């Protein structure tokens, strides 16, 4: 019980940066990549500055790969001869060292990452950025950091996605798995979209209690990051932030991928179809004809519905 | 189904018993680490035993029969059997509804030779948790009646449509049961109706419980301690294979529009173009109708327009089952599970770090785990996390080669 007083609230922020070279802003003006990166690095450093025990990790993704650009594996190794005790001293005079280290590490890792993309260049123009993959990495990482935290440390983890891509349909299942895992582990997922309204990611924000924001112009990116996404979720209630978007939760049928209001669901595998068919295309179950579908039990009906 | 399970029932339990021997042998101060590792290995083993692509009973209807007899006041579980059971059941309810989104659960309590239905089959976990909390404060008295409880569960389960999966889970602290008639007749009835009955014993093996689970294709286990108890409950979270008696059908369902903002949005944030109205779920509990339930936010039945504040729900006006698309998506991982990773010797592993969590492999790691599809190497923690929680391989989703 004495631990209550010593309990330290800390925050791990994992930023997923979309580095797909076909994002419009990168195609139009490749130099803007540095502008976006500098904003992300500033956000990361501001987050570290808020509390000495705050942590940050950055994951990059494009159409061919997703990879960590910065995590605790890249942290500055303690100098030999310096014991654990002296880290507190190092922090007071070593803040700038840490910030500079983060910047150089991220930039170096991005260079390697982008070169990888060049070498495995993709013919398919429409292939999507592997954001869902980056998120699975982030969740594994958060899972570990959470296990390694010291007693009395209350670690809140959250995700921030920065993307200028549309779509996400091809990774639908992975996205859903990520959303539910994050929700289960109380990880808030925020999205800062540079260009599109993203239906799927909006669902993710809604499920995890995060914010979705499509910024009106890239120039103001850093301001948006610092005003909207730097504050921790509990503080946000007190701020004036963009209202939550309307999220469409209707189902898409497995047969045509169209959104439907009423559909048929396979009782064995829960696949959704827009019309009755005698066999389930997902699990090959043969169904009884629709006449026998009515439940035997009728619940008490409520009259006077108006 | 019964024949499939035969002989398997004890595998997990014996594996666990062996772990205690292993812990006793190992007394060089590494105890805690090794216990954790052993439990994780047991988990891995359980995952490996999972058969993919079996037909599952996804629309589950489960009755929990909870012993509230005098035997539950025993203090071999801390603080008492009753309180410990209630605590663990709360966790179970949450997991159950998380993994079985369009399933239902009911609760029956037995004490003083009687059975009492304390919670009808319903699809909202919050209600169940409240009721379990109430039960944990209630009395424990007399003898339980297994037969009365089973008959009560059966009387409700037999009314369900043919595609429903029917199950009973008995948590039994008592070693005796007070039954008015021959319980074997009840067991045969349950079997005929395809009700799968599992029993978790808190004390010692009871013949009639073994008989019950064996005949109906359920699992029977006796707990070793509270951790084991928890694991046994979690085993019941996975949807069971579809019973042979179970029909397969296409069920007509409605997917209501999410009428405003988040589910928890209150009246004040409701948009003004929607008329204010009560939701159907709070119409009958008049005392609970307060201003917070009057609002524009809610889910509208696409067939008749009735409003509900929570999903999933069966429309009270037209009978249509209303769900949201993510509700269904929540259980797709049962159908498309990540293949088990290959256990490889640490010496064969060339990677310095786990692909998932970026942890450095150290000498203590005897094994590493390799995804057969993407060949990435993971640590034991990530292996468990990916298969138990995440249900997507980070390696496979992180590289376009695997799409
Ligand atoms: Zn269709
Ligand atoms: Zn199916
Ligand atoms: Zn209706
Ligand atoms: Zn790992
Ligand atoms: Zn893989």
TrEMBL record, chain A:
GO molecular function: zinc ion binding
Principal cellular location given in the protein's record: nucleus
Localization terms from the record: Nucleus
Matches recorded under Gene3D superfamilies: von Willebrand factor, type A domain
InterPro entries: TFIIH_Tfb4/GTF2H3, vWFA_dom_sf
Function: Component of the general transcription and DNA repair factor IIH (TFIIH) core complex, which is involved in general and transcription-coupled nucleotide excision repair (NER) of damaged DNA and, when complexed to CAK, in RNA transcription by RNA polymerase II. In NER, TFIIH acts by opening DNA around the lesion to allow the excision of the damaged oligonucleotide and its replacement by a new DNA fragment. In transcription, TFIIH has an essential role in transcription initiation.
Name of this chain's protein: General transcription factor IIH subunit 3
The species this protein was found in: Thrips palmi
Automatic annotation (TrEMBL), chain B:
Domain VWFA span(s) in chain numbering: 61-237
Spans traversing the lipid bilayer: none
SUPFAM superfamilies linked to this entry: Cysteine-rich domain, vWA-like
Chief location category: nucleus
SMART domains to which the protein is assigned, alphabetical: C1_4, VWA
Alphabetical list of Pfam families matching this protein: C1_4 (PF07975), Ssl1 (PF04056)
Keywords of the record: DNA damage, DNA repair, Metal-binding, Nucleus, Transcription, Transcription regulation, Zinc, Zinc-finger
Subcellular locations according to the entry: Nucleus
GO biological process assignments: DNA-templated transcription; nucleotide-excision repair; regulation of transcription by RNA polymerase II
GO MF terms held by the record: zinc ion binding
Annotated Gene Ontology cellular component terms: transcription factor TFIIH core complex; transcription factor TFIIH holo complex
Zinc finger boundaries on the chain: C4-type: 301-318
Family according to the record: Belongs to the GTF2H2 family.
Name of the protein: General transcription factor IIH subunit
Lineage summary: Eukaryota, Metazoa, Ecdysozoa, Arthropoda, Hexapoda
